[in-house]
């Protein structure tokens, strides 16, 4: 039985985090410094420290007057993310961190180093209200939305690790950010877009990342997909489809009871047509549930001829769950049938299974 779709827009249950530099546009930062009794130009100094040098403590910002540091730190650099637990695997190339937020909520981020790139998977909500039954975060329910600074802070923390050479492979930089951690990004739309702009604003106003290196995922909130189409951004849209037919998707992705497969895909194609960006279709392969050959053919027919790529995800099962990964032979046949329809497809590299790599697993243990 599908969960009530009212969960999609369930309101946060907690208060807002304190204002942070990364919540503000460059103009808002200047105004905030003036409010604190500081000259407006300090906004650029602070931005350079935070976004280019990854310094988040005013005490380390030695070009600021000593008498001003405490006031600036209290007004614009509050502690938002406290590491609770950090685990590594893949020879130190994958780093998963559980963060405690200012109000005690827990979220996760994952840094993954590959040859030629470093990807960070970030959370946009504490918990999730989408209620997908095979997802650890969905089982936890929604606690609250994250602020832009809480999202950006996850990336800055990863960038700091890389700059310090604390990740296997030596010093480096974050090249890609995927909004595929805890939460439904489109249910925290305005804040996620603000975070994307902080990530991609040229340094020192932001991290200076390429918009093409950012991926925003959704289970299919059609109005928000259409809103993203109008933003003028070149980010990748990732649609977590998981089933090509409404009957099964109603069960696996309860929001499908509001927006059906055809409507969700139409919105995705509108995004691709406007941006000329290939849509990524995320599809978690679940043994004997959605991995049948006939569903591969149905998916292939739906996607054929569109600007699209399928990312098949071997399910990382959660403890006690009835859902598990597909058999290798069924996975291979699924790939073969999609390719027969001319649909590009890859199977995701399964990073971090030994450190509870699926979103929400590690945070659930800490809770």
Q: Assign the CATH topology.
A: TIM Barrel
Total strands:
12
What is the assigned CATH homologous superfamily? Aldolase class I
Helix content: 25-40%
- Structure class: alpha/beta
What's the number of structural domains?
1
What value does the Rg take, in angstroms? 21 Å
What series of H and E elements makes up the topology?
Answer: HHHEEEEEHEHEHEHEHHEHEHEH
CATH architecture: Alpha-Beta Barrel
The largest pleated sheet is described as: 10 strands, mixed
- The strand order across the widest sheet is 1-2-3-4-7-8-9-10-11-12
Span from first to last CA? 27 Å
Shape: elongated
Instruction: Give the CATH class.
Output: Alpha Beta
Portion of residues in beta strands equals 15-25%
Which stretches are low in confidence, meaning pLDDT under 50 for 5 or more residues running?
1-13
Number of helices: 12
On the 0-100 scale, what is the average pLDDT? 92
Write the layout of secondary structure elements.
Layout: H1 26-35, H2 42-52, H3 66-76, E1 82-89, E2 94-100, E3 106-114, E4 117-121, E5 125-127, H4 136-140, E6 142-145, H5 148-163, E7 176-179, H6 189-200, E8 214-218, H7 222-229, E9 236-240, H8 246-252, H9 261-275, E10 279-285, H10 293-303, E11 308-314, H11 328-340, E12 345-347, H12 361-366
Parallel strand pairs: 4-7, 7-8, 8-9, 9-10, 10-11, 11-12
Antiparallel strand pairs: 1-2, 2-3, 3-4, 5-6
Short structural summary:
The chain has helices spanning 26-35, 42-52, 66-76, 136-140, 148-163, 189-200, 222-229, 246-252, 261-275, 293-303, 328-340, 361-366, and strands spanning 82-89, 94-100, 106-114, 117-121, 125-127, 142-145, 176-179, 214-218, 236-240, 279-285, 308-314, 345-347.
């Amino acid at each position: 039985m599908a969960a009530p779709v009212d969960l999609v827009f369930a309101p946060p249950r907690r208060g807002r985090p304190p204002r942070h530099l990364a919540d503000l546009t460059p103009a808002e930062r200047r105004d905030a410094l003036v409010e604190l009794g500081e000259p407006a130009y300090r906004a650029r100094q602070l931005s350079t420290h935070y976004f280019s040098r990854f310094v988040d403590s005013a005490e380390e910002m030695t070009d600021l007057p000593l008498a001003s540091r405490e006031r600036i730190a209290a007004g614009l650099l509050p502690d938002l993310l406290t590491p609770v637990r950090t685990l590594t695997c893949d020879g130190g190339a994958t780093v998963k961190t559980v963060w405690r937020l200012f109000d005690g909520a827990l979220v996760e981020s994952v840094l993954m180093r590959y040859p030629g790139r470093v990807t960070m998977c970030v959370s946009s909500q504490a918990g999730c209200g989408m209620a997908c039954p095979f997802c650890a975060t969905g089982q936890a329910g929604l606690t609250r939305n994250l602020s832009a600074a809480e999202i950006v802070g996850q990336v800055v923390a990863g960038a700091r690790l890389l700059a310090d050479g604390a990740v296997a492979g030596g010093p480096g930089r974050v090249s890609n950010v995927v909004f595929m951690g805890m939460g439904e990004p489109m249910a925290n739309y305005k804040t996620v877009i603000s975070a994307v702009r902080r990530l991609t604003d040229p340094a020192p106003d932001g991290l200076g990342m390429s918009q093409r290196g950012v991926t925003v995922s959704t289970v299919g909130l059609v109005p928000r997909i259409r809103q993203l189409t109008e933003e003028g951004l070149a980010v990748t849209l990732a649609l977590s489809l998981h089933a090509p037919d409404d009957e099964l998707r109603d069960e696996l992705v309860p929001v499908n009871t509001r927006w059906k497969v055809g409507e969700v895909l139409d919105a995705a194609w509108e995004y691709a047509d406007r941006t000329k960006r290939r849509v990524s279709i995320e599809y978690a392969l679940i043994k004997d549930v959605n991995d049948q050959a006939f569903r591969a053919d149905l998916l292939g027919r739906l996607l054929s001829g569109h600007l699209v790529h399928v990312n098949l995800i071997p399910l990382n099962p959660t403890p006690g769950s009835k859902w598990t990964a597909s058999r290798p032979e069924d996975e291979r046949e699924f790939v073969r049938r999609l390719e027969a329809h001319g649909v590009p497809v890859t199977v995701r590299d399964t990073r971090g299974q030994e450190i509870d790599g699926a979103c929400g697993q590690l945070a659930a243990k800490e809770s």
